[in-house]
Amino acid sequence: MKITDFYNYKKPGRKISMITAYDYTLAALAAESAVDCVLVGDSLAMVMHGHGSTLAATADLMALHTAAVARAVKDKLVVGDMPFLTMRKGLGPAMETVEKLARAGAQAVKVEGLEGHEEIISHIITSDIPVMGHIGLTPQSVNKFGGYRTQGKDPASAERLVSQAQELEQLGCFSLVLECVPERLAERITNLLKIPVIGIGAGPFTDGQVLVMQDMLGLYGEPPSFVKKYLDGRRLVVEALNNFDVEVKRAVFPEMKGKNNGNSERHKEVDEAPYLALRG
Ligand code: KIV
């Protein structure tokens, strides 16, 4: 998918799938899949580095992970997240972060929030770097929100989100992420905008969906309730590690190459029953 496909997909109602990736290995699997678009999200601060929030992500960290992902993903759009506070230090520092992400391989950047960012968003767009907006539950504002709570539940905040979405479109954003808002509000915003709206925890009516890859693969912590687990990844990985551990400790792995290498008696001594049971 190229950036221009984003507009073309909205009209015929062709849904867009976006997935996060932070490292070469999983990005290569995303590249092999049919998923449309890859986001190097600042959630990598939590998923890859064990921080409690996304606030720990820095421009250099984002650039490092973006470069790893871009090495794997050649034929899909790679979007890099503008990390915490990088839109708040003025145009020069913001553009330095944009440059780091673009040089690392991001073809577009995602910006959380709107108020106070208007001028910088316009500048990024007129510098020919496409911008994806992100409103609703913007995790960089977790301290203001007092936790990870659904946004836009009361009429005033719903109207604020509608006008923010419209303004981001007017500023020239090529798409919008809408996170954790009521599904009917997400539907309303999706219908109002010409640019595609990618939802996360925002119900089924948006133009596309994004998930954190480690959440949907069941690899990371306890995911938010809206996440669908497509794989029981933790169980499968821990099971594989335990199988490896058993085989090493019972001298079953590695297997002997030749019959007469002097180890055969030792192997006979291994009680293979538990190992065979593990294999099912
Ligand atoms: O950082 C991230 O992973 C994100 C998505 C969840 C939208 O912003």
Description:
The protein is α/β, with parallel strands linked by helices and 280 residues long. The protein folds into 2 domains: 3-232, TIM Barrel; 235-279, no CATH class. The chain is 44% helix and 14% strand. It contains 13 helices and 8 strands. It has helices at 3-10, 24-32, 44-47, 59-72, 91-104, 118-126, 142-145, 155-171, 183-192, 213-216, 233-249, 264-269, 273-279; strands spanning 16-20, 37-40, 77-81, 108-112, 131-136, 175-179, 197-200, 208-211. Strands 1-2-3-4-5-6-7-8 form an 8-stranded parallel β-barrel, surrounded by 7 helices. Helix 5 (91-104) links the parallel strand 3 (77-81) and strand 4. The model has no long low-confidence stretch (mean pLDDT 93). The structure holds 3-methyl-2-oxobutanoic acid (KIV). 3-methyl-2-oxobutanoic acid (KIV) is lined by residues 20, 39, 41-43, 81, 177, 179, 200, 210, 212.
Condensed summary:
With 280 residues, this protein is an alpha/beta fold.
Mean pLDDT: 93
Integer-rounded radius of gyration:
23 Å
Provide the CATH topology of the largest domain: TIM Barrel
Shape: globular
What is the helix fraction of residues, given as a range? 40-55%
Please mark out the parts with pLDDT under 50 across 5 or more consecutive residues, or reply none. none
| Spatial arrangement of strands, main beta sheet | 1-2-3-4-5-6-7-8
